[in-house]
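Please predict the structure of the following assembly.
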Amino acid sequence: MNIFKIIEDIEKFDPEVYGRLDSRRKVFKNMGSIGKKTALAAIPFALGSVFQKAYGQSSNMVLDVLNFALKLEYLERNFYTQGLAASGLITDSAARAAIQKIQEHEAQHVNLLRTTITSLNGTPISEPTFNFGKNFPDWNTSYQTFLTLAQAFEDTGVRAYKGQAANLINNDTVLTVALQIHSVEARHAAHVRRMRGVKGWIEGAGANSNVPAGAQPVYAGEDNVMQGGINDVKTVGAGYSAAIATAAFDEPLTKEQVAQIVSLFE
Amino acid sequence: MNFRIMEKPTQKKEKLDTREGSGLYAPQRRMFLRYAGATALATTLLLTTSCDDDDDGMTDPEAVDLGSGDTGILNYAYALEQLEAAFYTEVVARSLSVFSQTEQQIMQDLKGHESIHRDFLKAALGSAAIPDLEVNFSSINFNDKSSILTTARTFEDLGVAAYNGAGQYLENAGFLTLAGKIVSVEARHAAVIRDLITNGTFSDSANNQGLDPAMMPADVLQAASPFIVTKISANNLPK
């Protein structure tokens, strides 16, 4: 194994590799001081730790992801708590029971994320002030507007967690917890969507999601059909429609895309 | 840069599907992951799965081996998607009349989603894909809505728990994201099926921390084994 060849290879894809490694120079110095035989054997392990630090997956990155998720969970918890308290908003008993159940899950997610962040020696962000009426003034007087926003929050939540999974790949425990929250958000999303009379899954870029134009960022890119290097996933078998091909794969959102959506309520 | 799964599981040669997939595209990051993953890949552990009578831990020569590493996990997903796709294909072929119009559309959609998951994974795995599995649905009454829905709930909840539990074993970030794209769709299915059985039970799978289950491959395969005739070995999956 030629360590410099490896770094050279990485440089082709990441021109900043030397910059990233610069602060870890000491490790390379140390490696030079061990006997040649030992050094060769130690290289894979030393490299692992150098790269892990240089490329994130550090505890800081994990904490960033957790605080990012916490903000979304605060938003959802706050939204449902206020919605349930708004007089005359959610009157149907089945609807109330469903929203209550979802609110409880979001509250549990807030608590779990806060505990996890603290246990990793991080500091949970405090709850921001949300302004749901900023762009949707009838959010707590119109049941339909309330449900539309609920759907947007749940579908955004699913996409947000999905977008961060890769950033947790080196922390199995946190990754698994994130996945376990992610699928619960998807269950919420499916139910809320059907409360509004739309399908539980997302076809195209929100074509079947019945949201106003302003909410389109929530579904941007959901019409993607390029999966795992296959240019058009419709072609993996016979007779797959665009609706089937796009609904079968939920798409991630980046942190920035999510922040953009959240900013409509801050 | 193209990335193709190189490993081949060791099942009988004549059963091998020789169809060439188009391979999985690797984002830039994978080059790095291939190096960084080198040490982690060295750790595999034998685990015995559904073979309770197989105390020596030896792989049954008749069994289909899922393989190791990320390939093994993708084959594991492929096995589950085969099961789900076969089930909904049967439902759509035999049982639509027991459902309302809305429910019929749901069953058609589920058949489509699970079939494209199956065909996608097969194409992505290429020559490393396990062969077609033989299923056994004799315990299901396809004329009975309740029998169909409870089986669907079992499969969908199991699928969610399987992906949730397997994510941690994937070394490749691209594959992890792909698994994430599929698992939330399985969770949507599970919620809808649960609501068809009893409205409002969409997320009753979650524990008191608001977490869905995450199951290990051995437990998932055990739970699925009454419906799968083909013997499956998960002995070489990451642990």
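The longest strand of chain B covers residues 2-3. The CA atoms of residues 67 and 186 of chain B lie 24 Å apart.
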